[in-house]
Write a structure and sequence with these properties.
about 180 residues, mainly alpha, Fumarate Reductase Cytochrome B subunit, two-stranded parallel sheet, 4 helices, 4 strands, membrane
Length: about 180
């Protein structure tokens, strides 16, 4: 990472915007996606949540690319004191989060076995739509990658709580508006 240090104790506005926009959409789409497994598949509620989920995931996937690119160019705030091993694990963890988000997006769009309308205007037809077995396989990959992403988000939140309240290094303040 090309981490230029800055004098600020916080992340820049764009980094915060990317982070919280993605966080809100990812948490919503995960909860909505999990809820689709308990809602009647033929109900209007299921259709609405499914369409909203796909549209928000599409928006999030579009934002993902500039967010990832920006992570290489943003200036880093003053670092909290942390052992080298812990910092390396944190960097590896964030890389794993990015990789897993990318995998969730790809499998999510490749699992679709029917054409969908995104944001009420964009027609998306999965290029693998004629191959039900492949779509089913991507559904399985998507489901398990969502479970793994959910697990990593829990670890991420627990790490923030640890830094904020146990280490008292005010890490959370760097990402709040």
């Amino acid at each position: 990472m090309l981490s230029n240090k800055n004098e600020s104790q916080e992340y820049d506005f764009l980094s915060k915007l990317f982070h919280w926009f993605m966080a809100i959409i990812i948490v919503y789409t995960m909860l909505a996606g999990f809820s689709l497994h308990i809602i009647d598949e033929h109900s209007s509620l299921w259709f609405f949540i499914s369409q909203l989920n796909i549209s928000l995931a599409f928006l999030s996937a579009l934002i993902f690319i500039p967010r990832w690119v920006w992570s290489f160019f943003r200036t880093e705030p003053a670092q909290v004191t942390m052992p080298t091993l812990q910092r390396n694990v944190a960097n590896m963890f964030h890389s794993l989060l990015y990789l897993l988000m990318f995998f969730v997006y790809i499998t999510g769009f490749l699992m679709l076995s029917e054409p969908v309308v995104i944001l009420g205007h964009l027609n998306y037809v999965n290029p693998l739509i004629q191959h039900d077995n492949i779509c089913d396989l991507f559904f399985i990959f998507h489901r398990f990658s969502c479970y793994f992403l959910f697990f990593l988000i829990i670890i991420h939140v627990l790490a923030v709580i640890k830094h904020q309240y146990i280490d008292k290094n005010h890490l959370l303040n760097k990402m709040l508006f």
